[in-house]
Amino acid sequence: MSQAASSSLLKVEEIQGRGRAMVASQPLKGGQIVLRDSPILLYSALPLISQSLSSSSSASVSCFCDHCFRTLPLSLQGDSTLSPALCPSCRHYRFCSSNCLSKALNSSHSSWACQALSHLRANSLLLEQPLECQVQARFLIAAYNLANISPSDFQIMLSLQGSPDDATIAAAQFLHPLISSLCSLALISPQNGFSPELTAALLAKDKLNAFGIMQPFSVDDDQRTVRAYGIYPYASFFNHDCLPNACRFDYVDSNTPDDAHNTDFIIRMIHDVPQGREICLSYFPVNENYSSRQKRLIEDYGFTCNCDRCNVESNWSDNDSVEDNAEDEEEIMDEDQYEVMAASDIDNNAHGDNSDFPHAYFFLKYMCDRTNCWGTLAPLPPQGDTPSNVMECNVCGKLKSDDDFDIDNGQDGVSMED
């Protein structure tokens, strides 16, 4: 069951043209934790056959626990038989401890889920489909398993925003017969109305509300992939802004004994905001350019962004079409370009001039400068009424002192952790 902490700091309001949104119910400070949210559903982002113990390729073996999704020790990643705990029934799914296995057998990897996943793994037609389709099948198994083990959480998921579109309807037409053949193994309650329409509705909820839990950051890899997806009911209320005032932190690989909460999301404020201001996250790294952002938002979330930043950047080029520009332009802007514009913008503002990029200050202060990171910096939580002068990156975890941030010459702060 999801738990929302600091709920008195936020309230859900309906905003015209934006749907339900999170709004500050009192003034909020930079670094302040405004939400802790637990997932009601987690599922792997791997292909269905990636965890096969019969495979000779170590690359095909999951590097993560199939319940808490912590990274397994390197000594266990190359050989599945060395896993601390394997599912006793299918022998395909492995867990970081006997404790995780025990919890999984009573929840995410129940007897029905285990049998259903095994049937999917044996379906040659499904295994020939793209990864996206296989992951959607994983989601549907997790969703209908949730209907069995926690009907109340299943209803919460159905209450989230998202209506079927052509893509989710088409996916449901292919996947529903596969899932339907498995449901005789389950006792899905009649009130849930198991049907192609429900399957399409679930896929729509997943499309708009699933958060990716990313693989560990590596300075040598600029293409981080997703290890798992989760449905976070309270975090799902946050709308997107290309210059967010809050960002999400997760500590999935934290070395804590409480694996029940290592997949929790923590939402922290990037800077101060007044009461009544909408609190927004960015749905992807903030360094993407205008055309790339608009293309992703239209394709993945079904809306066009009209935030202040987009209104400024839309005038930088002709932008004949989102598709053409996404192909013609680089998907990201080099951090040096941001720093040059930011320094110029700060200098112009100091002299009362108008700048072509009034938001450049955000990138200079709040975007991580570590190679291939592109994360967002937010202050550590304040100690009482004393704000922190240390910023933390929500991707690589780098800490940076805010003491030496100089808006006169645009110099970054001092790195405290490499």
What is the fold's blueprint, element by element?
Blueprint: E1 10-15, E2 19-24, E3 33-37, E4 41-44, H1 74-77, E5 85-86, E6 94-95, H2 98-105, H3 111-121, H4 124-127, H5 131-149, H6 151-159, H7 166-182, H8 196-209, E7 210-214, E8 226-231, E9 239-240, E10 246-250, E11 265-269, E12 280-281, H9 290-301, H10 308-313, H11 322-328, H12 335-350, H13 360-366, E13 377-379, E14 390-393, E15 399-401
Parallel strand pairs: 9-12
Antiparallel strand pairs: 1-2, 3-11, 4-8, 5-6, 7-8, 10-11, 13-14, 14-15
Helix pairs in contact: 3-5, 5-6, 5-8, 7-8, 9-11, 12-13
Structural class: alpha+beta
Percent in helix: 25-40%
**What is the H/E order?**
EEEEHEEHHHHHHHEEEEEEHHHHHEEE
Count of discrete alpha- or pi-helical segments spanning 4 or more residues: 13
The largest pleated sheet is described as: 3 strands, antiparallel
Pfam families: SET
Protein name: SET domain-containing protein
Organism: Canavalia gladiata (Sword bean)
Domain SET: 8-284
